[in-house]
Design goal:
78% helix; mainly alpha; 3 helices
Length: 129
């Protein structure tokens, strides 16, 4: 139930965003068309505005539908997987993980040994009689 409600909320948000985009586009087109009205004739204005409006509207509509479909598909796949997830542990991947951990430990020990001064032999003293 909660997932369904959350999905509905997200779809509503997407629809609201789409409506806001359309309003902004209309406002910007109106302001642009006012500026262009001075330069164009009536026939040119009608044809160009129809073509651009249809293309933009189709793209925006397609984006909205894609987002909604993605949410619906995501919701349906997660709804079916409510049980505990079981993973198979492959031997090769597990062995690689163990090897990587061992190698880091060995490298750490080697660094510590190299830092200690007792590892290296001392310089012989000059008492050779």
């Amino acid at each position: 139930m909660k997932k369904k409600e959350e999905l509905d909320r997200e779809i509503d948000l997407i629809k609201k965003e789409y409506e806001e985009k359309m309003k902004k586009r209309k406002k910007s087109k109106d302001s642009k068309s006012k500026e262009k009205d001075k330069d164009k004739t009536e026939d040119d204005k009608v044809e160009s505005s129809k073509k651009s409006d249809e293309g933009d509207d189709e793209k925006a509509e397609k984006e909205k539908n894609d987002k909604i479909n993605a949410l619906v598909n995501r919701g349906s796949t997660t709804a079916g997987d409510e049980g505990p997830r079981v993973f198979a542990l492959h031997k090769a991947f597990y062995q690689r993980r163990l090897d990587r951990i061992r190698n880091t430990e060995v490298a750490k020990r080697n660094r510590e040994r190299l830092k200690s001064p007792t590892l290296f032999p001392s310089v012989p003293s000059g008492n050779l009689e």
